[in-house]
Design a protein that fits this description.
single chain; about 260 residues; 5-stranded parallel β-sheet; 5 strands; globular
Length: about 260
């Protein structure tokens, strides 16, 4: 059985149901996916998303174990053939709230812990994290573009380092209580990494995404056609891109080892 959890801030809350990855009309029509669980919260910082993540992971785990056996769940461990993909997006509100980048990185590590240490899935487990993106309103405040770029780089580095210190082989539950510093193992599908940072910074900037100084110089300009009228949130065209990007990454994660 394959399950999807989508959690985060308003970018998740506003995601149209028909454009949710692995949902109706998506990869769910090609393989056996359970109904996605979506939990989006407008204005939430990354640390504020964390309790919602824990809640939906518990809900998803309970549903998964109950479905696999046809009986109420009586264990905290998912079956070995279970697949769970967590898609997350948060962090931009941290910048708006004036939180330090260090605080946001600390919250991101706690977020990864909640997925890989606390959740303790016995099957295949993946985290796809959608990074911050240049948005049309940022053209009125170039200093924010620099903060978004810095967060994108820091989040990617944080998740790469997190995975580098974690071994993803067969599960060893004795490591769960030892914390992130221990060698902790999850699942047995080793063809692909478990954690994927999806760089969205210039994803919606059209032709300016590749000009010199696009990122560090802030010369990439968000294309309004991908955004809603508020110039802040994505519109349907933008979400359609996210859907395609996420589903492509999910297929890569689940592709059989060669």
């Amino acid at each position: 059985m394959k399950r999807l959890v989508v959690v985060g801030d308003s970018d998740i809350a506003n995601w149209p149901k028909e454009l949710i990855p692995a949902g109706e009309g998506g990869i769910g029509t090609e393989t056996e996916w359970d109904q996605p669980i979506v939990s989006g919260h407008s204005g939430a910082t990354l640390s504020e998303v964390l309790p919602h993540l824990r809640r939906v992971l518990a809900e998803s785990r309970s549903k998964g174990m109950g479905k696999s056996s046809g009986k109420p769940a009586i264990t905290t461990r998912a079956p070995e053939n279970d697949t769970l993909v967590v898609v997350a997006c948060a962090g931009e509100n941290d910048i708006g709230e004036g939180l330090s980048l260090g605080k946001s990185i600390e919250a991101l590590r706690e977020f990864a812990d909640a997925v890989f240490l606390e959740h303790h899935s016995g099957g295949n487990l993946f985290l796809l994290f959608l990074g911050p993106k240049f948005e049309p309103w940022l053209e009125h405040d170039p200093s924010y573009k620099k903060k978004y770029e810095a967060m994108a780089r820091a989040f990617q580095r944080c998740l790469e380092e997190y995975e580098a210190t974690t071994s993803f082989g067969k599960d060893d539950s004795t490591n769960i209580s030892k914390g992130r510093s221990a060698t902790t193992n999850y699942g047995d599908n080793s063809n692909s990494g478990r954690i994927h940072f999806i760089d969205c910074l210039t994803m919606f900037c059209g032709e300016t995404a590749n000009v010199p100084g696009a990122r560090l110089g802030g010369r990439a300009r968000a294309d309004p056609r991908f955004f809603a009228s508020d110039q802040l949130h994505l519109g349907n065209e933008g979400y359609a891109i996210w859907k395609e990007v996420v589903e492509t990454k999910i297929r890569e994660c689940l592709a059989p080892s060669k």
